[in-house]
Write a structure and sequence with these properties.
Number of domains: 1
Oligomer: single chain
Number of strands: 7
Bound molecules: NADP nicotinamide-adenine-dinucleotide phosphate
Number of helices: 8
CATH topology: Rossmann fold
Strand content: 5-15%
Order of helices and strands: EHEHEHEHEHEHEHH
Largest sheet: 7 strands, parallel
């Protein structure tokens, strides 16, 4: 007999960081269409406010709270998460989506961009996970989603070296947190997107197997709503490709992107 899989709860109050563009903005649109209340944050507050106005007009029954937030400012992350939690009457899912892909080959004069990528993707996610779990632990409920990347499965060459290392840290953090919180009412999911069209890959020369933002985010939302510990998204081709990349010879991995 196979054990029956627990049906995940429906989350109605969702905080999304990095909601000013790309995956975060599209996830907000898709969750708003399901009737979820939203808390949206990013640095470009003009974009966040414009998106909030669009969503309130399209779905007058939902609440959309907004905040300007730089996730590299840990104090601000704790303060803004607590404020948004109050605004929505208790957040039950946090999608730590804010991320940066400014990495450049090491030793070529771009330490500032590489450090910014690491700080945003690693320390920014750490602060978001801490702030989310400070809300969830006392209630023993909530869903924390960490947005990693399929590039996390191996060390990557060229412009992806720093980015892939930062996303590996996110994936490892997510795996450890899921283990730490097993048996509690809190669920942790790490998503590893392949290429989904957004500002982050707009300037890349080669983007294999890229999908458009809307279908990519539909796959992402479906994966998040299943609440697994870890999911490559879209499943095809990234789950099998991710498994191959994990064991492929380094010289082949270096040719992928
Ligand atoms: N698209 C893909 O193919 C793909 C693949 C794998 C993983 N991902 C991950 O998916 C997430 C979303 O990226 P995207 O593809 O949607 O790219 P994007 O369009 O560039 O969006 C990135 C978002 O992160 C926010 N952000 C960046 N630095 C921030 C900071 N210091 N504080 C707060 N917000 C910050 C940006 O908002 P502001 O600039 O307004 O702050 C923006 O809303 C990222 O974590 C990315 O690494 C994307």
């Amino acid at each position: 007999m196979f054990p029956l899989r627990r049906r995940p709860p429906t989350r109605r109050r969702i905080l999304i960081t990095g909601a000013s563009s790309g995956l975060g903005a599209e996830l907000a649109r898709q969750y708003a269409a399901t009737g979820a209340d939203l808390a949206l944050a990013a640095r470009r507050i003009d974009r966040i406010e414009a998106l909030a106005a669009e969503l309130r007009a399209a779905h007058p029954q939902i609440t959309v709270a907004t905040a300007a937030l730089d996730v590299t400012d840990a104090e601000a992350v704790f303060r803004v998460f607590a404020d948004l939690d109050t605004a929505l009457g208790g957040i039950d899912r946090v999608i730590a989506n804010a991320g940066l892909g400014k990495g450049q080959p090491l030793g070529t004069g771009y330490h500032r961009a590489n450090a910014e990528t690491m700080t945003t993707n690693v320390l920014g996610v750490l602060a978001q996970a801490e702030a989310a779990l400070e809300l969830f632990r006392p209630r023993d409920t909530g869903h924390l989603v960490l947005v990693s990347s399929i590039s996390a499965v191996r060390g990557m060459a060229r412009n992806l070296t720093v980015y892939a290392a930062s996303k590996a840290a996110v994936a490892n953090l997510g795996e450890g947190l899921a283990a730490d919180l097993a048996g509690t009412g809190i669920t942790v999911t790490t998503v590893l997107p392949g290429f989904i069209r957004s500002e982050i890959n707009a300037g890349m020369a080669r983007v294999p197997f890229i999908v458009d933002t809307e279908p990519g985010c539909r796959a992402l939302r479906a994966a998040i709503d299943r609440e697994p510990r870890r999911a490559a998204v879209p499943w095809w081709p990234w789950a099998p490709l991710g498994a191959v990349l994990r064991v492929a010879p380094a010289r082949l991995v270096a040719k992928v992107v």
